């Protein structure tokens, strides 16, 4: 499809892009497309379709559908815009890095908009292909940050609860980097003692200490040309933090028992489930090290904050445990899981699916194949809705002081869970210590 008023140079330029590219008018109409765009998206040969119809199957511009529209921002600012969106293509949905450039006419006014789209190879919104999957707004936003930072050498700090996929995201950073052909070396920092920390990270010379019968290559050396992933960096004790800081500051290290100064050559990605800023305040984490590693922090959402991803994760993970069977999950069971709190995040979902695959005799996983706490979460929510309705009918929902609401609610929840503190704390999203304090305060136990 070609708008005959578009200069030939402009059309030729579109074809030079190795990615799908389109020329748009300010009212979102597609004026010209390159070949790769036509092959990737629906048939746009019918003249003057809107970009939002083709990419999103919307009948209105993205910003009216709750998305950030690069076109709108480009018109407002006159500057290049970059956003990360989920697009419909003829291969199904794809995560797309969209760049929009204003194109000026000879008079200097913006006449067209050039949109170039690059597909993410790091994650998928569909089951099957890659390990990392997600399509919720929170996941897409996180992936957008990963796509931005991955090609650089910047240190990345991944923050999130246990099981949210920090290691998978660290691998994605590596995969999207210039170092992707090099090694990805994960280091589990918790539990490394002072001496172990040094010899693991820096290696040691033969005879450096009793039992050092050979020279050992350290993980820093193994990561040469690649990415070093320091998992649970918040667990590194203070004395080891100094050694890590020295490595990062100088870019050099020495094997234990060695005299030779070696040059490090790695890109650093760190992760923790801890609140590092709080650890700095509490004197548990060095401030200088914190600022060294906090160059590009990314918060990974908990599974309960992206429940829209649960069906996709189930579809992606079930084949891992289903063996030869093509198992599915019933809508009731999916709905149970959507109401569950998932303190262990995706790792817990994996375990739940593995267990369900062993329990199911038929081809469909039902709520009865899920652990009691998942079934209970579902009843619990239903009960609380029903109870609120009963209270409303009894006209007792007139305003009462907050602490009384808290007390009554806690008493009720305590009974529902038969006094299971661990589960109750997880469902209420508080620590067991906080829960214990509350229970004592209200004399519940
Ligand atoms: N978005 C995702 N898509 C598919 N699988 C995922 C996703 N996120 C996490 N997982 C799976 O969940 C499990 C836990 O992920 P991972 O080990 O990356 O989490 P983590 O945050 O590093 O956990 P921890 O803090 O305990 O080390 C893995 O089996 C991983 O494959």
What layout of secondary structure does this protein have?
Blueprint: H1 8-16, E1 21-24, E2 30-33, H2 35-40, H3 51-56, H4 70-77, E3 81-89, E4 92-104, E5 110-119, H5 137-149, E6 156-159, H6 166-175, E7 184-188, H7 194-202, E8 203-204, E9 216-217, H8 219-222, E10 226-231, H9 238-250, E11 252-253, E12 262-263, E13 266-272, H10 276-281, H11 287-293, E14 296-299, H12 310-322, E15 328-329, H13 331-339, H14 345-359, E16 364-365, H15 372-393, H16 402-416, H17 421-428, H18 432-441
Helix pairs in contact: 12-14, 13-15, 17-18
The protein binds adenosine-5'-triphosphate (ATP).
InterPro entries: AAA+_ATPase (IPR003593), AAA_lid_NorR (IPR058031), Homeodomain-like_sf (IPR009057), HTH_Fis (IPR002197), P-loop_NTPase (IPR027417), PAS-like_dom_sf (IPR035965), PAS_4 (IPR013656), Sigma_54_int (IPR002078)
Pfam family, one: HTH_8
Protein name: Sigma 54-interacting transcriptional regulator
Question: What percent of the residues sit in helical stretches (DSSP H or I)?
Answer: 40-55%
Are any ligands bound, and if so which? Answer: adenosine-5'-triphosphate
CATH class of the largest domain: Alpha Beta
Number of helical segments with 4 or more residues: 18
- Report the count of strand segments: 16
Structural class: alpha/beta
- Just name the CATH architecture of the largest domain: 3-Layer(aba) Sandwich
């Amino acid at each position: 499809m070609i708008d005959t008023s578009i200069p030939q140079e402009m059309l030729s330029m579109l074809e030079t892009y190795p990615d799908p590219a389109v020329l748009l008018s300010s009212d979102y109409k597609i004026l010209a497309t390159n070949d790769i765009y036509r092959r990737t998206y629906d048939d746009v040969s019918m003249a003057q379709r809107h970009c939002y119809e083709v990419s999103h199957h919307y009948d209105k511009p993205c910003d009216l559908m709750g998305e950030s529209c690069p076109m709108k921002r480009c018109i407002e600012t006159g500057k290049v815009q970059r956003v990360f969106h989920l697009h419909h293509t003829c291969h199904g949905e794809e995560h797309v890095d969209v760049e929009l450039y204003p194109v000026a006419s000879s008079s200097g006014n913006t006449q067209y908009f050039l949109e170039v789209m690059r597909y993410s190879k790091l994650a998928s919104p569909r089951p099957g292909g890659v390990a990392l999957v997600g399509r919720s707004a929170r996941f897409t936003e996180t992936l957008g940050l990963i796509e931005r930072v991955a090609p650089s050498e910047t240190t990345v700090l991944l923050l999130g609860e246990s099981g949210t996929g920090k290691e998978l995201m660290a691998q994605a950073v590596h995969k999207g980097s210039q170092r992707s052909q090099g090694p990805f070396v994960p280091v589990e920092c918790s539990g490394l003692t002072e001496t172990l920390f040094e010899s693991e990270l820096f290696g040691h010379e033969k005879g450096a200490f009793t039992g050092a019968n050979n020279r050992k290559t350290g993980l820093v050396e193994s990561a040469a040309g690649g990415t070093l992933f320091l998992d649970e960096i918040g667990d590194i004790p203070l004395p080891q933090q100094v050694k890590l800081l020295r490595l990062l500051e100088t870019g050099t290290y020495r094997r234990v028992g060695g005299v030779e100064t070696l040059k490090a050559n790695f890109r650093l990605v760190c992760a923790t489930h801890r609140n590092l800023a709080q650890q700095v305040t509490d004197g548990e984490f060095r401030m200088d090290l914190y600022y060294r590693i906090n160059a590009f922090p990314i918060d990974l959402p908990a599974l309960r904050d992206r429940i829209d991803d649960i069906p996709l994760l189930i579809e992606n993970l079930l084949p891992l445990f289903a063996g030869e069977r093509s198992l599915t999950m019933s809508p009731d069971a999916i709905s149970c899981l959507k109401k569950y709190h998932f303190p262990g995040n995706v790792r817990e979902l994996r375990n739940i699916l593995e267990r369900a695959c062993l329990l199911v005799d038929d081809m469909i996983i039902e709520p009865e194949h899920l652990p009691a706490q998942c079934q209970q979460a579902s009843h619990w929510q239903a009960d609380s809705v029903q109870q609120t309705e009963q209270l409303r009918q009894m006209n007792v929902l007139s305003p009462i002081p907050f602490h009384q609401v808290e007390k009554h609610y806690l008493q009720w929840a305590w009974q529902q869970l038969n006094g299971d503190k661990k589960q109750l704390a997880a469902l209420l999203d508080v620590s067991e210590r906080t829960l214990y304090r509350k229970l004592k305060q209200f004399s519940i136990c």
